């Protein structure tokens, strides 16, 4: 992973963005020697967001199973038939 100072980002944003688009490697931006932010390619960010949404859905499903909030296959089919009418 590349690391850049926030002052470098201010002065060389065009070059840093060009490198980012070419390498697809995230850039860690530091401020006063401390990590401040990550700079990532738009496509990579959107992919991460979709993956996170999928994981959140799986987590909700697991929680529903643990809490007993489930329904039988037949009841689900019946509800879908009514909903689709």
Structural account:
There is one protein chain. The chain is elongated, with a radius of gyration of 22 Å. Helices cover 65% and strands 18% of the residues. The protein has a 3-stranded mixed β-sheet with strand order 1-2-3. It has helices at residues 6-23, 42-66, 73-84; strands spanning 2-5, 27-31, 34-39. With 85 residues, it is an alpha+beta fold. The protein has 3 helices and 3 strands.
Task: Provide keyphrases for this structure.
alpha+beta, elongated, three-stranded mixed beta sheet, 85 residues, 18% strand
**SS strand fraction:** 15-25%
Order the strands across the largest sheet as they lie in space.
Answer: 1-2-3
Structural class comes to alpha+beta
The succession of helices and strands, N to C, reads EHEEHH
Count the strands?
3
Helix content: 55-70%
Radius of gyration: 22 Å
Oligomer: single chain
- Given as residue ranges, the uncertain stretches (5+ residues, pLDDT < 50) are none
What separation lies between the terminal Cα atoms?
A: 53 Å
Outline, from the CA principal axes? Answer: elongated
Counting H and I runs of at least 4 residues, what is the number of helices?
3
Give a quick account of the main beta sheet: strands, pairing sense, barrel closure: 3 strands, mixed
Mean pLDDT: 95
